[in-house]
Design a protein that fits this description.
The structure is a single chain. By secondary structure, the chain is mainly alpha-helical. The protein folds into 2 domains: 69 residues; 46 residues, no CATH class. The chain has 7 helices and 2 strands, in the order E-H-H-H-E-H-H-H-H. Strands 1-2 form a two-stranded antiparallel ribbon. The longest helix has 15 residues. The N and C termini lie far apart (33 Å).
């Protein structure tokens, strides 16, 4: 079993594309972060925490922006979560979404866990 926790690159690819459209040299960004672009864009690719930190540092250095996390978050869509996102779309309400996502959160992000519990008054 692989003990190194990773995050799928699919959560960063849209940010790289948006930065490129804004004029950022994204080949240089990825190079500065020590990330191979072909590997980065490969379906199923993932980044280790140190690579994410290097990516964020390089992006901030090249853009001068400190709000990139907000931009990255705004670019994430339900379908960004691969097959789990399609399951989320099929849920009848937000409670069902949270129950599904809390069960399979490791498919979205191995670095963190999500727990959700529903009571009669609140979730």
């Amino acid at each position: 079993m692989n003990s190194v926790k990773r995050v799928p690159t699919r959560y960063f690819v849209d940010l790289v594309d948006a930065l490129q459209a804004q004029g950022t040299d994204t080949a240089r960004l990825l190079s500065m972060a020590g990330i191979d672009e072909a590997q980065f864009r490969r379906t199923g690719a993932s980044l280790m925490p140190a690579q994410i930190e290097a990516f964020i540092a390089a992006a901030r250095h090249l853009t001068g922006r400190s709000d990139l996390g907000f931009e990255a978050g705004s670019l994430i869509k339900m379908t960004s979560h691969d097959i789990l996102g399609y399951g989320m779309i099929g849920c009848r309400d937000f409670d069902q979404v949270l129950r599904l996502v809390s069960r399979y959160y490791h498919l979205m992000n191995e670095l963190f866990t999500l727990r959700y519990r529903r009571t009669p008054e609140v979730g």
